[in-house]
Amino acid sequence: MANSGLQILGFFLAVIGWIGLIVGTIMPQWKMSAYVGDNIVTAVAMYQGLWMSCAFQSTGQMQCKVYDSILQLDSALQATRALMIVGIILSVMGMGISTMGMKCTNCGGDDKVRKARIAMVGGIVFLIGGLAALIACAWFANRIIRDFYNPFTPVNTKYEFGSAIFIAWAGSFLVILGGAMLACSCPRRTGGARKYPRAKSGPPSTTKEYV
After folding, report:
1. What is the arithmetic mean of pLDDT over 163-175?
2. 28, 119, 153, 208: most buried by Cβ count inside 10 Å?
3. How sure is the predictor about 32, in pLDDT bands with cuts at 50, 70 and 90?
4. For the chain, what is the HEC assignment?
5. Given a cut of 70, is residue 201 above it in pLDDT?
6. Which phi and psi (to 5°) does residue 103 adopt?
7. Which residues contact 67 (CB under 8 A, 6 or more apart)?
8. What is the rounded distance in angstroms from the CA atom of residue 141 to the CA atom of residue 146?
9. Which residues partner with 45 through β-bridges?
10. Cross-strand bridge partners of residue 32
11. Residue 14 contacts residue 119 (beta carbons within 8 Å)
């Protein structure tokens, strides 16, 4: 049977990763303007996120604009949005399921094997959610790299990684790690019911004792 300390550690790592996914999804710094080329203008820094684009001026002011239409966005951004939301929702479901199966809680009954299986299911849900967020981050990062090294991309429109994508990456790894720890709650087979030695069977004795 899995150690309760391992379950608690996995649960808290997954919760911290879930918070990281939320923070990374909300932040607009998924990609930031890259200062490459001969003409470098540092007065304004451009940021683009999943929900808005921002301009940060050297005076310390930031102006953000929410994307007006979803249909005008490219497919990579829409897919990243969807996968991040799926990862957050699955992490919430994993928290609810694993809470019922952890040894330190009274939910899910007193059956230890049943609770261990519930915790294992919660860990698997965490794993799926973390993988969805990880795929989203990798997809978005791949798009940034391709546009950066594309020779037809104008120099002033090239972007590099922002801080939000690193936070989302770290959150997805923590969710996967916590889910793996909870998935280790799978109960071991003990061989089933206790076996007793079989009684010798044979034809009934037909001999009679005579006095």
Report:
1. 94
2. 119
3. confident
4. CCCHHHHHHHHHHHHHHHHHHHHHHHCCCCEEECCCCCCCCCCEEEEECCCEEEEEECCCCEEEEECCCCCCCCHHHHHHHHHHHHHHHHHHHHHHHHHHHCCCCCCCCCCHHHHHHHHHHHHHHHHHHHHHHHHHHHHHHHHHHHHHHCCCCCHHHCEEECHHHHHHHHHHHHHHHHHHHHHCCCCCCCCCCCCCCCCCCCCCCCCCCCC
5. no
6. -70, -25
7. 51, 52, 53, 73
8. 9
9. 56
10. 47, 160
11. no
Residues in the chain: 211
**pTM of the model as a whole:** 0.79
Lowest mean pLDDT among 66-80, 151-165, 193-207: 193-207
CB-CB contact of 209 with 150 (8 Å)? no
Average pLDDT over residues 168-176: 95
Whole-angstrom distance, CA of residue 157 vs CA of residue 154: 5
Instruction: List CB contacts of 158: < 8 A, sequence separation 6 or more.
Output: 33, 34, 36, 147, 148
The C-alpha torsion from 38 through 39 and 42 to 44, rounded to 10°, is: -140
d(CA 103, CA 50): 38
Tell whether the model's pLDDT for residue 162 goes beyond 80. Answer: yes
Strands 52-57 and 44-48: antiparallel
Rounded to 5 degrees, φ, ψ at 13 are -65, -40
